[in-house]
Structures are given as C-alpha cells and as structure tokens.
Amino acid sequence: MECLIGAQFNDFVMVACDQTNARSIMVMKSDMKKYLQLSDRLIMAVSGESGDSSQFAEYVEKNIQLYKMRNGYELSPSAAASFTRRNLADYLRSKTPYQVNMLLAGYDTESNTPELYTLDYLASMIKPTYASHGYGGFFATTILDRHHRPDMTRQQAYALMVECVKEVQKRLIINLPNFSITVIDKDGVKDMDPITPSVVANSAA
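RESULT FIELD:
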C-alpha cells in the first residue's frame, strides 16, 4: 500500500516517498521517513513489510559505511546497487527472504551523472529513467510516461511530482496524503518541501 516514485534528469535525481505508516485499518503516522542516506550523494527509498524494510535497509546502510571506513572512499551508485542486489538475491535463496522493494538514487562523481536504480523483492534490478513501486505507481507511471523530460529544471520536476501525487490521491482508494521529496545532485542530498494536500490543492487553483 506504499508508494515510491523516482525520476532521473540531466543534473539530478528526484525521489518521492509517501509518509504513511499504516497497519491493517489503522494509520500510525503520516510523517514517516521512508528513505536512508547511504552516503553523501546516495539514498535508498524502501517499501514493503515494515520489519523487513527497516532491517534490510539498515544492513545495507551500515555495510556501505563500513566500506568507506575501510577503503577511504564511497561506493558509486552502480556499485552500491550491485551490492544491494547481490545481498537481496542471497537472502531470497535462504530461509529468510526479505519482502522489500527499493529505489536507489545517487550521483556518480566520476562520470558526473545522476543514476537511478529500481530493485524488487525478487532481486531483479534495472536502471530506468523513472520508476515507481506500490499501487500508486500504476497511476504515477502514466504521468511520467507522458510528461517526463530529461532537461527539466528542479521546479519543473517538482511540479511533475505534484501531478503524480495528485493522480495517486485521485485514483487510489487508499489515502496517502503526504509525500516527502528528495533531490540528489553533485552537491549532495537535499530535502524539498513535502507534497501535502494543501500543495496539491494550490497546484489545481
């Protein structure tokens, strides 16, 4: 019932994560942070079973930090994605698989390019221009198919995410009121203003 949306542009990657923490018919929080910052220019947004997502995300986070401490430099986004996929595949073939779906978004300082990777619970990984997870992703993908352009500015990309969230809130039976927005570029990871019902309402005005 969660929703993650990511899109890659020429100079940055933008990721939107819903902030709802619900179980059965009960909503516990509407301001939950669903991504971890793995390094200075790399984040991992996670959805899935709450225990699996938190444990696996923290496992990956600590191992990437350990790699930096041992070697003196950070893993590139592609290397971090490969490491994450390999561990997810190993656990898939064990008695304790993790039911998690992820978006890895980062900026490669060697090639000076933003990168986006999507992984699912079956340990399949692709490097798309845009991707989504969850039921809301069915509706967001249609907006991205039609309106995504690699040369968009941050303001245009933010407006595109607002349109995606608006469609999710309009079409999906589940209430996902708040989405956090994160941008990763050559300068690091930055949070933008979250997309709330008031932001969606103002965009329609």
